[in-house]
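Running this now, will post back.
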Amino acid sequence: MPLDARPSHPHHAGSIRGDLQIVADFVAPHSRVLDIGCGDGALLAHLARTKQVDGRGIEISQAGVNASVRYGLPVVQGDAERDLGFYPDDSFDYVILSRTLQAVRDPKGVLLELVRIGRRAIVSFPNFGYWRIRLSLLTAGRMPRTPLLDDPWYATDNIHLCTIADFIALCDELGVTIERAIVLTRGGRRLPFRGCASNLLGEQAIFLLRRG
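Update: finished.
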């Protein structure tokens, strides 16, 4: 089926998740973009429509790949930890890893690959330092469950949960420069980055990074 004959992605006409909109705001028009763990391609479709990017995607689930390809998006099935090494340095202007870092086996290695193959990297993740999580641990003494971390501990894919402070420390260790950071409350309200306060008040965080 020719690309122009394929059905439009639902997000061509509508809005996207609030955190993905922040990611999109970080991306300059007409950029080369790689979205790792792109799901059904909602962000790629939005970026193609609003920023005219040259976008590519990697998705581990066959269902996600099928959904993306159905809408004419250039997405391949792949594993970030296995496949990123095949990309040359500076292959893309932006490499995006949205709500996925905590689910990989080697977050440190993946982060290094992101800033190697992309001139900029955009990383988002749920913040395990969020005050509701701290309170839940203190009062119930069990692994918390939130809208972003909604699976029980024995069934979750999230094997390397971290706080905003942990992530900043890792960037410092690796010499990765943080250019911008935004945190979101549970209600989706954007908060400017303010160190310890962000680590306490932010349910999730979005970082724009580059090599140091």
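The first strand starts at residue 32 and ends at 36. More later if anyone needs it.
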